[in-house]
Amino acid sequence: MNRLRQFRVVITKLRSSQRLDEAIALCDDSMHVEELRYAAFCERTDLKYDRGQYEDAFSDLERMIELRPVDPSPFYVRARWHLMLGNEEAAAADATVVINAGEMYFMSAAHFMRALANCLLGKLDLAQEDCAKLPADYKTAIDTQKLGWRMMSRADLQALIQ
Q: 34 and 46: one domain?
């Protein structure tokens, strides 16, 4: 098993057994190993966010962006977190970065987040543009400061925009 795979297996075990301090310590130690650095920041970011250490989590996301500025993943995560924390402008901006990266894996979710952020900001024309780009059967779990946690479909989003 290679080092990266082994690192992820150990982190998963520590997280599932609620040994979060040990998981964070392993991430801290692994940041000194080149092949593990990005994954260590990624895992530590999630762990800190889950613990409510939002400033630290956002700092780790910034570090991930510095390490791999063309990777849309941290922008995607940050857009979701901004929505949860009520920072709709920032969420829309990060979702735009993800969309512009063109990676299909994130495309629908990024359009959804940007549409929702713009809707909450009252930018209904922009929200409608993104909503129109979603598959008709699109559905996702979303958590926002203004709406709370819920399952939302494209139809739900369209109704909110109206």
A: yes
Q: What is the pLDDT of residues 7-58, one digit of tens each?
A: 999 999 999 999 999 999 999 999 999 999 999 999 999 999 889 898 999 9
| Entry pTM | 0.87
**Mean pLDDT computed over every residue of the chain:** 94
What is the dihedral angle through the alpha carbons of 33, 39, 41, 45, rounded to the nearest 10 degrees? -150
User: Is residue 114 a contact partner of residue 83, using CB atoms and an 8 Å limit?
Assistant: no
Banded pLDDT at 1 (limits 50, 70, 90): low
The answer to whether residues 58 and 87 belong to one domain is: no
The closest alpha carbon to 157, from 135, 72, 87, 94, belongs to 135
Among 69, 88, 112, residue at a domain's last position: 69
The pLDDT value given to residue 29: 96
Domain boundary among 69, 97, 112: 69
Task: Give the CATH number for residue 32.
Answer: 1.25.40
Nearest Cα residue to 36 out of 69, 2, 59 = 2
For residue 101, give its domain range: 72-162
Into how many domains does the chain fold?
2
Closest CA to 119 of 148, 89, 79, 153: 89
